[in-house]
Amino acid sequence: MADTKTATLTFGDKTLSLPILKPTIGPDVVDIRKLYAEGDVFTYDPGFTSTAACDSAITYIDGDLGELLYRGYPIEQLANQSTHLEVCYLLLYGELPTADQLDDFTTRVRRHTMVHEQMHNFFRGFRRDSHPMATMVGVVGAMSAFYHDSLDINDPWQREVAAIRMVAKLPTIAAMAYKYSIGQPFVYPKNALSYAGNFLHMCFAVPCEDYVVQPALERAMDRIMMLHADHEQNASTSTVRLAGSSGANPFACIAAGIACLWGPAHGGANQACLEMLKEIGTVDRIPEFIAKAKDKTSGFRLMGFGHRVYKNFDPRAKVMKESADEVLDLLGVHNNPLLQVAKELERIALEDEYFISKKLYPNVDFYSGIILEAMGFPTAMFTPIFAISRTVGWISQWKEMIGDPTQRIGRPRQLYVGPTRRDYTDLAKR
Ligand code: CMC
Fold first, then answer.
1. How many Å lie between the centroid of ligand 1 and the Cα of residue 313?
2. What's the chain look like in SS3?
3. 275-324 residue pLDDT tens
């Protein structure tokens, strides 16, 4: 590296001068766009551990400090002082709204909470025991078959309508997937309720009884949504961007993001974590599971621990832990065995040399499952709730990408390790 403006790369008889790009915060970025054209080489970075794939002004993470900023605002301040819909506005438009702007945005979202009635039939085509994430991937993808007036990605107005539709309808779709899976009738959205309150209502109301949303649970749900709203270029967001880079419609792109989120290394970890806590069952079995997590041949990892970027602590986990204490207190769940196992597992892991040396700390998914279970959600609904919350992040990132004049189709290169050219042999001669 030569100076602060360029990096010098020498290989063979070539020397290339590569520009260094300056972010507003965070590490400098070596611009290698001309590397192949001028140097005839590719870079190799499986898992993208050192590669910036885009410019973005939405979310910033400092993994060493354990800091997460949405448009510059610390997540702790937003989680304590804002609401999910206000955070949605912030992520989508870049600034906190005025009272009038928030009012207008809330009205626009509310007007789109129902899904096309014909979509109800679509749900009924799934098996009742389908995982709600499977249903969501299908139904969100199918939105492009229902909302033809928001598919033109070159029209800013259509992009805006698609964004509002997805923020508004994802809670309805997730709640419908849940209701369908338990054999209960779909509950229509109630627009007088808050975003989080309406979601709880659609999940837990039944036609034969009134359902009253408890303010503390509504607030906890809203916080869960804010904490998961965006997380810069994570796997599902990168999936949305890559899908969108080909010009695919926004509903197809978000369906791709939901499919990626489902994996246990990503959003599926909240379900996997709670299932793991249940499997451990009692505090005395923790050492057995810690030993298994350290044994590379076991293929087992402590779910809810570790993060690609956070190497100090996950700031979302800190807020989530406070929320878990509040919700469990409110619901009078003091001796929950799962909570005891979780607390003890956290204590032991944080003192263990393996976890300390690899900087493996509890992540957001470690605590979210405990709260959601206490609220009455089955584990299969944990990842759908993550998907609802992350929808605004995916759309904000997608909109940012489509609006970027330098945007091109995403097309990674490879280090080819397969056979070199060879001639086809007849079947009889093989
Ligand atoms: N339990 C035991 N060992 C672990 C764990 C874990 N949870 N996570 C990482 N390690 C070890 C891993 O075996 C490796 O060891 P070594 O260097 O000896 O080969 C080292 O730590 C680094 O792991 P890695 O897989 O190279 O790290 P990564 O950055 O590729 O993966 C991760 C990050 C989150 C996928 C991983 O930590 C993991 O699988 N955690 C469990 C799943 C989980 O909780 N995921 C939710 C992430 S937060 C929510 C979200 O963003 O979706």
1. 14
2. CCCCCEEEEEECCEEEEEEEECCCCCCCEECCCCHHHHHCCCCCCHHHCCCCCCCCCCEEEECCCCEEEECCEEHHHHHHHCCHHHHHHHHHHCCCCCHHHHHHHHHHHHCCCCCCCCHHHHHHCCCCCCCHHHHHHHHHHHHHHCCHHHCCCCCHHHHHHHHHHHHHHHHHHHHHHHHHHCCCCCCCCCCCCCHHHHHHHHHHCECCECCCCCHHHHHHHHHHHHHCCCCCCCHHHHHHHHHHHCCCCHHHHHHHHHHHHCCCCCCCHHHHHHHHHHHHCCHHHHHHHHHHHHCHHHCCCCCCECCCCCCCCCHHHHHHHHHHHHHHHHCCCCCCHHHHHHHHHHHHHHHCHHHHHCCCCECHHHHHHHHHHHHCCCHHHHHHHHHHHHHHHHHHHHHHHHCCCCCCCCCCCCCCCCCCCCCCCCHHHC
3. 999 999 999 999 999 999 999 999 999 999 999 899 888 999 999 988 88
* Share of the chain residues as helix, strand and coil, in percent rounded to the nearest 5: 55, 5, 40
Of 365, 404, 423, 426, catalytic: 365
Query: Given this model, what pLDDT does residue 175 score?
Result: 98
CA of 306 to the centre of ligand 1 (A): 5
Cα–ligand 1 centroid distance for 358 (angstroms): 9
Q: Is 365 a catalytic residue?
A: yes
| The overall pTM is greater than 0.85 | yes
CA of 30 to the centre of ligand 1 (A): 27
Choosing from 84, 228, 266, 307, which is the catalytic residue? 307
Band (4; pLDDT cuts 50, 70, 90): low
Mean pLDDT of the chain: 94
In the residue annotation, 148 being an active-site residue is answered as: no
pLDDT digits (tens, 9 = 90+) for 49-82: 999 999 999 999 999 999 999 999 999 999 999 9
Answer yes or no: is pLDDT of 3 > 80. no
Ligand 1 pocket, residues with Cβ under 6 angstroms: 47, 231, 234, 265-267, 269, 293, 301-308, 358, 360, 363-365
